[in-house]
Amino acid sequence: MAAWAGILALLGAATLATGIADGEPLLRHLYLLPTAWSALRFGLAAGVATAVMAVTLEAPFLLARIEAYGLDGPAAETLVTFGLLVIVGALAGVLSDRGRRRGARYRTALGVQRAFAAGRSLTEALAIVDDTLGQYLGGQVEVVVRLGDAFVGQVGPCALRPDSIGAWVAAHGRSRYAADAPPRGPGRPWRLIVLPLLASGEVVGLIAARRRGDLPPEERAALETLGVVIALALENARLGDELERRVAAATRHLADLDRAKSDFVATASHELRTPLTALLGFSELLLSRVVAPEQARRHLTVIHGEAERLTRIVDDLLDLSRMETGGRSELRPTAIDVAAALETNAEIFRAQSPGHRVRVTSTPGAVVALADPDALDRILKNLLSNAVKYSPGGSEIRLAATRGDGRVEISVEDDGPGIPEDALPHVFERYYRVPGRTRAVRGLGLGLALVKSLADAHAGSVRAERAHTGGSRFTVTLPRAEEAGVP
Predict the structure, then answer these.
(1) Can you tell me the distance from the alpha carbon of 194 to that of 348, in angstroms, rounded to the nearest whole number?
(2) Is the pTM of the predicted complex or chain greater than 0.85?
(3) CA proximity to 320, closest of 382, 278, 370, 377
(4) Domains of the chain, first to last
(5) pLDDT average per 10 residues of sequence, the chain (487 residues)
């Protein structure tokens, strides 16, 4: 009201000035001030209306002059001024309307971005977007987002009829504009436009807008621009959620790894202390007193066994260091009779663990692998050691080697409690030990990780699974010597 009062005051002042100073054409340009102000403040309609009011106020003076002097120069100038007023009111009003629409579009785009960036749920964000777009368009707007094969709006999941415009837009990725159902009662008909929300070339959602009256091309283009903003906001929200999940997963993995390393340090300290205690104790006995030859031999046997155990632990730690720095053990592949290697290791473990029955089912000479002898021996010893540690006394451990398509498969199967399904994907990770069994069985959690590293170094593989007896089966795949041209 204050703005209109000022405009009317300016119109009155301009009319009074031109009336007092009759014949002064420059004073008629005072009408440009209220006309321009009205157009810039209220838009096209107000600018043209103010220009018409100015013409109406000045018309009596113009008609009086024409009646007295005819259409002379000053009268013609007044007519030009009238035309100028209408042009200024129209142009300024158009520019003002466009500026307001553009500002409204920017504010709407900012509101959409804030709706998705404020940590709200999807349905809450969609409700805000629907309301924001509805206010901008002056109609009814609904935005739905594709989640898998379904669409979700502010009220939850929604289904698209196969024959609907929305289904067509979702299938073709192009917008559709059409007259909606006839109006109920008097009034202009409803118009409907459905636009796809595209991200990376895929339809991630839809915008359906209904409004009384026509939707001019400029409004459709603006709605399409806002659709791009919504699609980008949805994609950014999705990427943000995915990044958050990945960071959380990485954080959990680092925490698990840190905890595993702490457990490893504690276990390694215990494992190293045990043979060192035996070495110190029996060597002190030999140094501090005279013992019988038979007793001395027993002490030396214990010392030798503990030294070998300490050597194995150090070898495992060195191999672990090479694995963590990306290095690999130097391999010297040669043709190896796998059955003979299995039988050799079976004899060793039969002597070390007489409570277990170790059976080899492969025929000597029938399976020949291309492998490094020391690496294959370490693979077999680690797998057999695991089988013995986790199998009850008196149970059987089965070793087998078979020929496949260019490969050799070596399996070690036991009758132990087996590995839980959720632990199978992790058994070859460094430091990992099956939960609930770490106290019952000693070890550093490196054996299976070393087996995998050595198998990979041979361009082979290793897998773990539950045996049909309920125990565990480990299968190592290595290249066949015949396929590599080695006799």
Answers:
(1) 77
(2) no
(3) 382
(4) 2-102 (no CATH), 118-215 (3.30.450.40), 262-324 (1.10.287.130), 334-479 (3.30.565.10)
(5) 72 71 64 81 83 80 74 76 84 84 80 74 80 83 81 79 84 79 61 84 84 78 81 76 81 81 70 77 82 82 80 73 62 89 88 86 82 88 87 89 88 89 83 63 71 88 88 92 57
